[in-house]
Structure formats: structure tokens, C-alpha cells
Amino acid sequence: MTALNERKVAVVGCGFVGSASAFALMESGLFSEMVLIDVNKEKAEGEALDISHGLPFAKPMQIYAGDYKDAGDAAVVVVTAGAGQKPGETRLDLVKKNVSIFKSIIPEIAKYNTEGILLIVANPVDILTYAAAKLSGFPENRVFGSGTVLDTARFKYLLGEHLSVDSRSVHAFIIGEHGDSEIAAWSSANVSGIPIHDFCEMRGHFEHEKAMKEIAENVKNSAYGIIEKKGATYYGIAMSVRRICEAIIRDEKSILPISSIQHGENGIDDVALSMPAIVGRKGVEGLVPIRLSDKEKEQLKASADTLKKVLDDAL
Ligand SMILES: NC(=O)c1ccc[n+]([C@@H]2O[C@H](COP(=O)([O-])OP(=O)(O)OC[C@H]3O[C@@H](n4cnc5c(N)ncnc54)[C@H](O)[C@@H]3O)[C@@H](O)[C@H]2O)c1
């Protein structure tokens, strides 16, 4: 058993998402060592050099391209390796390719690293989180996905714009699948404790049904729109990865909608999806049972059923 280096992170997959995440992690100052791993070693080497050249403007750390052995003592292993969506493809279309990549990657990580946290980012993130938990044999609290952390950030951003208020004062979650069946949990949404509809009215917005529909659709379709325009999404997810790592390394016990395997909560069992959870140094320290309306509960169940079908076919 290799002792963990609490200040070390490994990023597996150095494409758009992996390299943007590595850059955000370098800037964060959370780690003093970062290893980049990719099947294309030259790409990992190039990214390590490029990102290192920002260090004189940040905090000292070692950044290098390496192998799975080098990830043996990483406190967090961020897995972004896998094909991304092409224009028009859904996240679930990526299942077969990326499950097969995970079957080669995850056992390699687990061979050298038995104590770290696996943070899954590649898509479909819920399916791959489940697969990673099974393939690694790690306790489930140490294997989770970025889930709807990004969708929730998009949700807060859009609500902040709509209401002309700092998005950090918006408390609202996207839950369920990171994908087409995700749910905007309106019934618990608020701005600094003021129920969302009341705050909307304070800001002169009264057509709640219309606005709710538009904002939730906009969140859900954000990635499609960006992929159509620039081929991939990576800055938003990079900041999400940074935020999750911060919660882990600083043992913040922050409430984040990460994806983890459910065990009967809301009638959902043996499938990974996002619900707000307490995230700290031990990983997922517990789910937070936010209030959901009956309709939201039904939608959540439907989201779980969609994922379960894909899981049954894929694994
Ligand atoms: N969870 C989220 O919110 C979120 C957001 C954006 C993208 N993504 C997902 O992240 C993944 C990566 O997207 P991207 O745009 O960076 O793709 P990309 O094609 O730019 O990068 C993928 C990288 O993985 C590497 N790779 C492939 N097979 C590998 C293997 N067996 N071992 C090691 N490395 C391997 C490739 O060489 C490449 O560098 C995709 O699945 C994408 O859908 C997730």
C-alpha cells in the first residue's frame, strides 16, 4: 500500500477537458504535484510543459507526464479519458467506447493506487462512475463523478443573469442524470433563502412557467450549443473539477451535486446519478435529502430508469 501524498493529483486523459482541468488545478494552488497521463504520451508531455510555464505566476509545483505507477500516491485521480460528443451525439451515445476505455484504465489506476479518490469526468459520467466503482473495487465513498456540478453551475449562472444577481447567491440544483433526463429542482431553489418565485417577482418577472421552462431547457442544451459552435466544452467543467478537488483537499464538507451510486434514496437503487452530497476529504460523506415535489421525484425516478437501462446493456 503506497502512502498518499495529500498534495498530489493525477489527471488521466489530456484532451480538451483534461488539459483545461490541469490548468485550473495548477492555478488553484491546491496541489504541489500533478502527473498527467494519456495514451498519447506526447500530448501529456506537451500539456505538462505548457502548463508549467505558468508556474512563475502561480504557486510552485511539479507538473510532469507520467504513467499509472506515478499516480500511485495521488490523493485524487481525475479521469477525463475517453471520446467526447460529436455534434448531434448524446452523452449516452458514448457508452460503448468509453466503458471499454475504462475497462483498461481503471484496473491500472487501482493496481498502483488503493487509497485515493477517483473523480470521474468522462461521459456518460453516471454510467462511467458506476463502472469505475465496480472495476476499481474501491469503497463507494471514494468513487464519484462530477455529475451535475457543471449543469448546476450553468443553472446558477443563467438564473443570476435572469435576475441580475450574483450567481453565487443563487442556491439551486440540477439533479439526476448529467444528460438529457436531468431535472431542475425548482421546488428547493432560492436566492439567499428567498424562494425563487418570490425573488423573481421582486425583480419584475411574473411568468414563472415560461421562464422555468426556458432556463431548464437552456441548461440542458448548453453543451449541445457549445459543441456545435466550438467542438467541445472544457472551461466550465475545468472549474467544476477544481471546485470538487478544493472541497476534497480542504475537507470542506461542501454540498455539491456529484454523481454517486444510490442505495434506495427516493426509491432509486444500484445506479449512479447526481444528488446533493457532502464532499470532504473522505469523498462522499453522505447525501443531502433536499425537498422535492412529487413531480420532481417522478422525473428523478424516470432519469434513474433511463440510466439503469443503459447500464444493463453496457456492463
Ligand atoms: N462531466 C462533464 O461535465 C463533462 C464536460 C465536458 C466533457 N466531458 C467528457 O470528458 C471526456 C473528454 O472530453 P475531451 O473533450 O477532453 O475529449 P478529447 O478527445 O479532447 O480528449 C480525450 C483524451 O483521452 C485520451 N485517451 C483516450 N483513450 C485513452 C486511454 N485508454 N488511456 C488514456 N488516455 C486516453 C485521448 O488521447 C485524449 O487526449 C469526454 O467523454 C467528454 O464527453 C465531461
What topology does this entry show?
Elements: E1 5-12, H1 16-28, E2 33-37, H2 41-52, E3 62-65, E4 74-79, H3 95-112, E5 117-120, H4 125-136, E6 143-145, H5 149-163, E7 170-171, E8 174-175, E9 183-184, E10 190-191, E11 194-195, H6 196-202, H7 208-230, H8 235-249, E12 254-256, E13 259-263, E14 269-274, E15 277-280, E16 283-287, H9 294-314
Parallel strand pairs: 1-2, 1-4, 2-3, 4-5, 5-6
Antiparallel strand pairs: 7-10, 8-9, 10-11, 12-15, 13-14, 15-16
Helix pairs in contact: 1-2, 1-8, 3-4, 5-7, 5-8
The protein binds nicotinamide-adenine-dinucleotide.
Residues 12-18, 38-40, 43, 80-85, 94, 98, 101, 104-105, 121-123, 125, 146, 150, 178, 232-233, 237 line the site of nicotinamide-adenine-dinucleotide (NAD).
Binding site for substrate: 85, 91, 123-126, 151-154, 233
Subunit structure: Homotetramer.
Catalytic activity: (S)-lactate + NAD(+) = pyruvate + NADH + H(+)
Are there runs of 5+ residues with pLDDT below 50, and where?
none
CATH class of the largest domain: Alpha Beta
Q: What kind of sheet is the major sheet?
A: 6 strands, parallel
DSSP, total strands:
16
Tell me briefly what this model is:
With 315 residues, the protein is α/β, with parallel strands linked by helices.
Structure notes:
The chain has 315 residues and is of the alpha/beta class. It is 43% helix and 20% strand. It has 2 domains: 5-145, Rossmann fold, CATH 3.40.50; 149-314, Alpha-Beta Complex (L-2-Hydroxyisocaproate Dehydrogenase, Chain A, domain 2), CATH 3.90.110.10. The longest helix is centred in the last third of the chain and has 23 residues, at 208-230. It is globular and about 55 Å long. Bound molecules: nicotinamide-adenine-dinucleotide (NAD). Nicotinamide-adenine-dinucleotide is lined by residues 12-18, 38-40, 43, 80-85, 94, 98, 101, 104-105, 121-123, 125, 146, 150, 178, 232-233, 237. Nicotinamide-adenine-dinucleotide binds next to helix 1 and helix 3.
